[in-house]
Amino acid sequence: MDDCIFCKIIKGEIPCHKVYEDENFLAFLDINPVSPGHTLLIPKKHFRWVYDVEDFGQYWQVAQKISLALKNSSLNPDFVTFLTMGNDVPHAHIHIIPRKNNDQIGPFLAQIPHLKLSDQDFKEITLNITNSLNNGK
After folding, report:
1. Which of 38, 91, 93, 95 is flagged as catalytic?
2. Beta bridge partners of 73
3. Which 3 state secondary structure label does DSSP give 80?
4. pLDDT, tens digit, for every residue of 32-57?
5. Model confidence pTM above 0.85
6. Which ranges constitute the DSSP H helices of 12-118?
7. What's the burial of 15, exposed, middle or buried (CB within 10 Å: 0-12/13-18/19+)?
8. How far from chain centre, in Å, is Cα 25?
9. Which helix (H) or strand (E) holds 85?
10. Are 103 and 33 within 8 A, CB to CB?
């Protein structure tokens, strides 16, 4: 895609701090990190959403490989989290974020509004999802 910033990074038109690359995926440090080592993993082929990526399992295996490298690095995070919201850039990407137990990210995530649903709401949502799964067979 010609106007996609991530596609331009893949083509080498925009520089990045590359931490991993293979024939299908590229990982580089986020230019607006929420922690040291915050990495973006993208498919080299343009897909809009993470769930659209053809090699979905392989994609997450690479994410695991990078998260273990971060965990075992001198950054010494307590744990690593993944975020796949995808609203900021219209190209599939996984945020791989090294975390500390008492970092500033936890309180931020706690501010996200949560729904109060009734048992009936849960039942209807469950039925909706299971019907969709069953129809997809």
Report:
1. 93
2. none
3. strand
4. 999 999 999 999 999 999 999 999 99
5. yes
6. 56-71, 105-110
7. exposed
8. 13
9. none
10. no
- In this structure, what token pair is assigned to residue 74? 């001198």
Decide if pLDDT at 136 tops 70. Answer: no
Sequence-distant (6+) residues with CB within 8 A of 70 are 37, 39, 77, 80, 96, 98
> Does residue 114 carry a catalytic annotation?
no
Alpha-carbon gap, residue 89 to 105, rounded angstroms: 21
**Predicted local distance difference test score (pLDDT) of residue 137:** 55
Nearest to 66 by CA among 80, 55, 49: 80
**CA angle (38 as vertex; 33, 42 as ends), nearest 5:** 110
What pLDDT, in 10s, does the model give residues 93-112?
A: 999 999 999 898 888 878 88
**For strand 39-43 and strand 94-99, is the pairing parallel, antiparallel, or unpaired?**
antiparallel
> Tokens 């990407």 — which residue?
93
Q: Which two tokens stand for residue 96?
A: 């791989």
Q: Which two tokens stand for residue 130?
A: 């299971």
Half-sphere exposure of 75 (CA within 13 A, CB side): 21
pLDDT at 75: 97
Q: Are 6 and 91 in contact (CB under 8 A)?
A: yes
